[in-house]
Amino acid sequence: xxxxxxxxxxxxxxxxxNGANEIDVVHFTVTDTVDGVTKTRHDFHHLDPxxxxxxxxxxxxxxxxxxxxxxKATMGSDRVAWQEWKVDQxxxxxxxxxxGEKIFS
Length: 105
What we know:
By secondary structure, the chain is of the alpha+beta class. It is built from two helices and three strands; from the N terminus they run E-E-E-H-H. Strand 1 (4-15) and strand 2 form a beta hairpin.
């Protein structure tokens, strides 16, 4: 299954450099399922709205797709790949745990 990116929430400045309700932090998840094992990674990414004032979009008007495009673009392909790799690692660890534990009662 392909990785699914979702926005869980945003943080914003009520009065930013571009106007009201300027998004500067995006909280997101990356989820994947392999062989019935589903893992979700939670993280956040800071945006710098002051870098491109011509493309400013107020929080009320932004879409999840637009937010994810911004997050991935400002992260860069290496960081996007790392986020997805971390989900792969969590799935692999559950399928073949690197360690075990036995509890004695």
